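Protocol check, entry for the methods section draft. Step 1: assemble the input record (protein sequence plus ligand SMILES). Step 2: submit for complex structure prediction. Step 3: store the structure tokens unaltered in the notebook. Ligand used here: coenzyme A. Step 1 record:
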Amino acid sequence: MSNLTLCRTSGPPAFSVRPALVSDIEAVSRLDATNANAPLRETSEFGMDRWREYFKRYGTGRPRRHFLVATTEAGCVGFALGEVRTLDYTSAPYACVSALFVSPSCRGNGVGTALFEALCARFLGDGARNVRMMVPCVGGAETPMAFCRQLGMKTGGYIQFEKGLSA
Ligand SMILES: CC(C)(COP(=O)(O)OP(=O)(O)OC[C@H]1O[C@@H](n2cnc3c(N)ncnc32)[C@H](O)[C@@H]1OP(=O)(O)O)[C@@H](O)C(=O)NCCC(=O)NCCS
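Step 3, stored output:
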């Protein structure tokens, strides 16, 4: 599989999708800082250190883990990362999209779809036959839900339970 996927050659911003490089970390971190959903996370301290750590875990060469960026001539406009999991009570390997984000100024141009499809092609190559993505139930869930449905995703067969932990 070619590492570089050219996604658009005319019309609104031409972009391509490729595996993230260490030199993309700063741009990804800056892009992530524009995420309006950041307060929904358990911590908003997603700075450069956090993204360096993610690159170590998901960057090029990690088995069954992928970290992709979408770029235009202007630079990084989106990123996606995820992995194929096998050590779970479900027997078949399945893939999880851990993060998928497109610059607010570049949305509606197919960048999110291209990132998702590029991840899925890699997941398929890793043996996964199912892909999962969590979207928030509150705080502007409409867009990610519409996005997932457009990708052909459906509500999964599990309900997520969670509980805060304290010492
Ligand atoms: C969700 C997100 C990744 C979509 O990125 P994008 O590049 O705008 O998506 P695309 O242009 O590929 O859109 C694909 C489809 O999603 C749906 N969609 C995207 N944005 C939408 C919006 N604001 N309202 C309704 N539907 C929308 C549409 O059906 C669209 O298809 P169409 O253009 O043919 O109508 C982007 O809005 C984002 O980064 N949001 C914040 C982070 C997030 O929610 N991540 C995903 C879940 S964790």
